[in-house]
Amino acid sequence: MAKKCDNKSVAILVRNGDKILLIERKAYNPGFALPAGHQDGDDEITTAKKELGEEVGLAATKLIEKVKLRLNNPCKREGGTHHDWTVFEAESWSGVIKPSDEEVKTYVWTDRQQVSGLAEKLEDFVESLGLVLSDENMPKIVEATNSDDAWKRNPGLEPAMHPLFKTLKII
């Protein structure tokens, strides 16, 4: 039986100068994303610190809330039809990146132009499906990115990240 979804997710924006840390997920949802995860009963700050440590081995000492947004992005958990996202910026962090062997395929420090390129790759993929990149179409888009072998081999931005990055004015 799948784990129950609490429909609450947290993402952490980590900057190093003008670069943004993105991870490429190993499994569901394939694509480049901020370190992120479900709250699973924890508060938002605890979750953000835990996920940052688990996914990339960094410790956040100062987190600033940047965005709250409900998205129609499904997950593989039972009841995971949407998520209430909170994005924090790690204004102060420490450590050396040690990607999780279980969750992270690779990581990259990207600039805005590279993030825009990953976003365009997602937009082109969505267009090839005959869809418009919208919250309404998010379930179909997520399903497609999880089933398309070419996407999994060479992905763009993870679908849920697109509206979050737009709201953050990164793309």
From TrEMBL:
PROSITE patterns: NUDIX (PS51462). Pfam families: NUDIX (PF00293). InterPro entries: NUDIX_hydrolase-like_dom_sf, NUDIX_hydrolase_dom. Residues 5-133 form the Nudix hydrolase domain. It comes from the Bacteria. Transmembrane segments: none annotated. This is Nudix hydrolase domain-containing protein. It comes from Candidatus Wolfebacteria bacterium RIFCSPLOWO2_01_FULL_45_19.
